[in-house]
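hi! just following up on the protien thing from before. the input was this:
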Amino acid sequence: MTSNAQINLDRLAAKHAHEIIRLTEDKKASEVDNTVTKTLGVLQENGVYACFLYLLAKEKDNGRIVVDEMLNLLDGLGFGWGKPSGNGVEQILQHITDKVSGDPKQGGLERLLLAKETLEQMLIYARYGAKARS
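and the predicted 3d structure came back as:
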């Protein structure tokens, strides 16, 4: 991390899950639940890059909201990854490749696994939030 300050990962995950639910309040809860559940499955089975790829390719409206909150969460981890230079698919995927996947020699694998675990927690909370809304 970039500073000695400790980050409460559970709070960070909950904060961004809540934001997904807030930003999708005009959508059907079942659609949000479906998007988040499928995204969680892709993340768990195929990893962070595949998760972003899935959202950008298959889940248009809800997917963009989830992508934005996932990027906000990753930025909030304090690793200095920042955000993509733009909102385009290429820019987002390039950012994930360059920053999040990172160089394994520079602690990239540990950071990637922590990011994946925190993203999973966020998606689980968002899933429960969507179910609670229905």
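The two ends are 38 Å apart (CA to CA).
The helical segments are 9-23, 29-46, 48-58, 61-76, 89-101, 108-133.
cheers
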